[in-house]
Amino acid sequence: MDQSMLLIGIAGLLIGTVVGMTGMGGGALMTPALIFLGVNPTAAVANDLVAAAIYKSVGAGVHWREGSPNLKLAGWLGIGSVPCAFAGAFIIRAVGSPEQQQDFVKLAIGCALLVAAGTYVLRLLVNLREITLNAARPDEDPPIKPLATIAVGAVGGALVGITSVGSGSVIMVTLLLLYPGLQAVKLVGTDLVQAVPLVLAAAISHVIVSGVDWEVLIPLVIGSIPGIYAGSKLANRVPQTVIRRGIVFLLFITGLSLVGVDPVIALVTGVLAMILGTFAWAAIRRRYGLPPFRGRARRQRQAAAATAARDRPPAPAGPSDQRDTPDGTSTREP
User: Fold this and answer.
1) pLDDT digits (tens, 9 = 90+) for 223-242
2) Which of 70, 82, 102, 154 is deepest in the core (most CB within 10 A)?
3) 195 torsion bin: left (phi>0), alpha (psi -120 to 50), beta (else)
């Protein structure tokens, strides 16, 4: 097997697992990975979309069987996303020469990655505010906001059609802002279900306009299908916070690189942003009356629970805890 095909297969396996667990990062991670592996930007978008139409169907099927998607919400999203996603390849073709198309797509992908990173940061802030103000209440079937949901679908569909980025990262985070009471597993399941017709429409338009490269598509599909299946099974068992923040860091530095920033400068900027962001996040948590870091908050809760357990009076002995002794008295079992 050609080395580049093997690398593409490994990338598909790893990124598919992340998509299955979190519902985000598919195109946002895979398309840049293909570009850095030497695939030109327009071909990377086309092949990633065709592969996504296949492997996201697997993840959506797993979530569907486990009852996690909100199908009504997914339907409203599809009204806006499917036609806009189908238009993506034709928009790229209208840009100009092949060289101009490559430059346009590369710049668009970089901008989309930076937008995806920004929406996730916004999501953290909204979550924090809702938790501290007790504004978020679990709601498995929230009332649909049709116009806003269609608009989210349309913007996300256009992003996906041009860059293959946005079906998991941008759309899912925006959904959480619109429907904060939706449980995380339902959010992932809904996003994966609505992403199937979205990426299928985008993939069909790219096949019509530019076709696919089988040496890229085949290892991508072979690697990603088992990855997303395993990730979907792990979605309820793996803490997603660290994974999501790692994705945001990668989105940020990759986006900077694709818009023309020197890779070393992009990496240094990303590290500085992560360090400064950590202290800024600690300050924001203090402002809302929370410990600066989650680890400290978790230790405080554990210590409070241990103290409460020590101070709790012992339960009285029940009938099953006692037995008669030869002298007629009763004693508790050891």
Assistant:
1) 887 887 777 777 667 666 67
2) 70
3) alpha
